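pasting Golgin for the record, 481 residues
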Amino acid sequence: MATGNLASRLHLLIDLCVRQFPEREEVTLPTKETEKDLLLSLSQVLREIQSWRSEISCDKAVESREETVVDHDESADALYGPDSIEYLCLERLVADLVCLLGMENVHVKHLAGNILVEVSGCLVESGSQWDEFIRLLCECLRLAVIYSFPIPAVGSETGFGSLDQCFFGSDVLKCKLEKANWSTVSDIFRVLRNILKRLSQEDNEEIFDVYLESVNSTLAKVPWCRLDTIFSHQHGSGERNFQGQSGNSEEATVFLGSFVQFLCSMVQQVHVVEDSDDFEPSYLILQKTIKLIPDLLRWCQPKLKSQSGSCMSRYLGHKLLVLMIRLTDKSKIKCTILLSWLQYLQRDSQGFLQHTLTKFKPVQDNCLEGSPFFVSLSDREVNEMHSNHLQRLSVFLFLRCSFTLIYSSRHNDKLCEFDCRKKGMAEMFKWIERQIPGNMFSDHRIYSKKNVEFSASFVRLFMHEVWVIILYLPFVFGVLV
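structre below
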């Protein structure tokens, strides 16, 4: 299959499908029959692109067996350049599909997202224009965030001093995304996450680096201070204004969940070696994610408090803890950031760090990496298991941060090293005192019994991570005795 005009062929296929469906208007909602026709057309488009991808893959396999060498064609630069027909076709097909992500029909959204993932795979197989595709999709994310949160961002660290300054970029994309909402942003994150899953199966570091560079550049350009205004309206007296401007509170919570879930998946796929360069894409995306943590905690905290016990509050709590755990494992984090995370755990982490370990029962296998939701259990059992799970994650992150401060070689100087070790040790002692209250000298027998109960609970809580017990329990038990 010839791949030289793949973008124009994809655009023609998708345009024939989308053209029959009118642009979304507030006064004319699509009928059930129209949506049904669109779903059928999108399904056909998806199958067609999947067949194209299979053909391209077979052709590449044949070329590989024949050891065909293809010389670089200088005319390709003109064929795929920013002003080329192929680029414009790629831009329009991305804009058309992302526009469908803003629809209310979940089946249309799902199919449009799957088609974007297949287009990505098709371009990866063909070896043409994938870089442009992922940058266009990331640009859609930036514009969707801006249009979804229409609040002037004055003096933001992103450098956007006014509303108009945020709207640079392609007119084609801006036209399609001017009606974007919370749901559109959430679905773009879902598409980017699914593309990431596909890329993780490819043995192509160059493509993965392009993905990370595009995402990192977009996250750096988004005026995140807009969300501070939005969520302060939601949590405070501006609730009615928030509802009218940017959708309801449930959609906002889904957006937060999608964003944190996307960051979790991306951090999990990043691999950083000890001597990695500070300007490598993997290092930069980890540092950008670390900088976003205080914002995410601030935006999610009202949700965690106001929806205590709800599925979404548990999910947000779970994903935030998993994200921070993965970051401590993947990246070199400054001492000040580790201390701020310890303060969050002590103060705001739904009180899980204040609970004693002896109250909790064993948890299921792989609970650290898995989902906290189990539909086959009763409400009481589910709530208990969620509490066990979040308690476990909170303690794990607390231990990771504390021991990093105590033993890490990341300190700037001797004074920093002494101060951080002192603070890490102090946090550890406070937690242990809360776990085993009392004085060993007043009644040594009772105190020893509490020590044994605590140690047994610690082993039970982390029985599926033997290395945690081997690494942390000897130190903790040494402090106790």
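Residues 334-481 form one domain.
The mean pLDDT is 77.
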